Every structure is written in C-alpha cells, then in structure tokens.
Amino acid sequence: MRDEAVKEVAYDEKYDPREGIEGSGGEYASYFSVRLRVFCEKQKISIDDGVDGKDAERRHYAIFRGNLALAVCRLSIEPPYAKVERVACLKEGRGRGYARRLMLEVISIVDRDHPNAIVVALAQTTVLKFY
C-alpha cells in the first residue's frame, strides 16, 4: 500500500457517468467508476440517485494503484460542516486499510483548510461500524 497515495481528483465536466462505468477515461472517470460499481452495480442504487448533480460543487478524493481508483469519497464544505460523502471502496481494496487511510487524510485536509468545521460522515446504516 506504500505506493498508493490519497489524491484530490479534479471534476471533469466532460465525463458523463451515464455513458457507462469507464466513460471517457482519466482520473475522474476512474474515481467515478468506483462509485458506480459500489453503489449502482453492487447495491442496486439507481443511476439517478448515484449521480445527483452536485459533483461540480464538491471536492473529490481517491486512493489510486496505478490508474485504478481503489477507494473514493467526496467532500462538501457547508459551514459549519464539512461533509464526507459517497465513500466507496472496490472489493479488491477492502480489508487493506484504503478507505480508512482515505478518511483520515480527508479529515486532516479539513482540519488544515477549515479548522473550525464540524466533520460529518454521511453513510448507510450497513457500514456504520466502519465509522
């Protein structure tokens, strides 16, 4: 896991997740493919719920192995809150500390950039133990 770093992923307005999991390629497509695989394919959440139109306003983070995103989340700053949303990890990355490392790094970024923010994690009840 040493080579995998947490990285901020730039929003790509040209990428349309409704075109399919791989989309147009690039880091944002790889980031978004994790969300689509975890939420839409595995958990059967509709694409309309998975793509809520708020991504242009959010910051996106991922841990990559090569060009493959393994764990992802997005961050919404809505004072006084910093909301960590859409946390997802591919099956091949689970149990290896990727999601934990991602969360700790994002919380560190919030502490640095928004020291008075209250960090809130939005999550499904089935994964509350992780938090």
Strand tally: 5
Main sheet strand line-up: 1-2-3-4-5
The portion of residues forming beta strands comes to: 25-35%
CATH superfamily: Gcn5-related N-acetyltransferase (GNAT)
SSE topology string: EHHEEEHE
Structural overview:
The protein is α+β, with helices and mostly antiparallel strands and 131 residues long. The chain has a single domain, classed as Gcn5-related N-acetyltransferase (GNAT) (Aminopeptidase), CATH 3.40.630. It has three helices and five strands. It has helices spanning 26-42, 47-50, 98-113, and strands at 6-9, 59-65, 68-78, 81-89, 118-121. Strands 1-2-3-4-5 form a five-stranded mixed β-sheet, sandwiched between helices. The radius of gyration is 14 Å and the shape is globular. The mean pLDDT is 88.
Write the topology of this structure.
Layout: E1 6-9, H1 26-42, H2 47-50, E2 59-65, E3 68-78, E4 81-89, H3 98-113, E5 118-121
Parallel strand pairs: 4-5
Antiparallel strand pairs: 1-2, 2-3, 3-4
Task: Please name the defining characteristics of this protein.
single chain, alpha+beta, Aminopeptidase, five-stranded mixed sheet, 3 helices
Can I get a quick summary?
This protein is an alpha+beta fold and 131 residues long. Helices cover 28% and strands 27% of the residues.
